[in-house]
Design a protein that fits this description.
The chain has 9 helices and 10 strands. It is α/β, with parallel strands linked by helices. Strands 5-2-1-6-7 form a 5-stranded parallel beta sheet, with helices on both faces. It has a 3-stranded parallel beta sheet with strand order 8-9-10, covered by helices on one side. Helix 4 runs parallel beside helix 6.
Length: about 260
């Protein structure tokens, strides 16, 4: 008899493993084969090439520069592949104790580790690998976080072409965004404390302005951290400090600045 394939996405947390008790209650080892899937961001490996002087002299390529560049790229890709393989083996090793426990109970278990967006990879695997069911735990996001981000579970539910079994444990706390936590704290009369950092760039100065608007609207304490690299010099640091404090000059109380 061909066993039905049940895909169980895990993220390394105890929360995600809570789906296992439901799977064990619902499915007999003789009827299903379990696939434990872990999806993680790809490891970050800088792709370094040879020194520019190995490539150009006076903006003209040296003879053999293509070979030098090609060799550097090949070495870079080999390093990336090595790091990805090591990361994949580490993810599989994390799931192995769970797999061993399931095998002792009579289940057929396969371990899979992939890199990328969790929802996309889960849907891709479910749709391409003859999966009969996806079973996973969900935090149950709500409100703005669900609108902006969408939960992994909801995206899997929408994208998978097979049935999806979702479990939200009764004692699971709903995950809140920073904005939702802020609104809740303000509603309870909590004093607001805001910290913002700027290096003088357009985007970071906009963040200072927004932080000032928050303080003006809700009160509380504002701290401004002004950063500058040593190579930019003291004059540049002083200029950034002056421009930054001008953005919040009308606030009362005045924010605390940290150079």
């Amino acid at each position: 008899m061909i066993k039905r394939k049940v895909l169980i996405p895990l993220d390394g947390s105890d929360f995600s493993r809570q789906i296992m008790r439901v799977v064990l209650d619902f499915f007999d080892p003789r009827d299903v084969a379990l696939v434990l899937l872990r999806v993680a961001p790809p490891p970050s490996v800088p792709l370094e090439v040879s020194s520019p002087r190995d490539m150009l002299v006076g903006n003209y390529p040296l003879s053999g520069s293509y070979e030098a560049y090609s060799g550097a790229v090949d070495r870079g890709y080999a390093e990336v592949e090595h790091e990805m393989q090591a990361a994949r083996e580490a993810l599989v090793a994390e799931m192995r104790p769970e797999a061993d426990r399931l095998r002792e109970m009579g289940y057929t278990v396969k371990l899979e580790a992939h890199f990328g967006d969790p929802a996309q990879r889960i849907v891709q695997y479910a749709n391409e690998e003859a999966v009969s069911l996806v079973a996973m735990a969900t935090h149950g996001r709500s409100g703005l976080s669900r609108l902006v981000m969408g939960s992994v579970a909801e995206r899997v539910l929408r994208g998978a072409s097979v049935p999806v079994l979702l479990l939200r444990p009764e004692n699971a706390a709903v995950v809140k965004t920073a904005g939702e936590k802020l609104a809740s704290a303000l509603g309870k009369g909590t004093n607001l404390s805001i910290a913002v950092a700027t290096d003088g760039s357009t985007f970071s100065q906009r963040a200072v302005s927004l932080a000032g608007e928050l303080q003006a609207a809700f009160g509380g304490k504002l701290e401004v951290l002004v950063t500058s690299s040593g190579r930019e010099g003291t004059n540049q640091a002083q200029r950034v400090m002056k421009e930054t404090m001008a953005l919040v000059a009308n606030l009362d109380p005045q924010p605390e600045s940290v150079p």
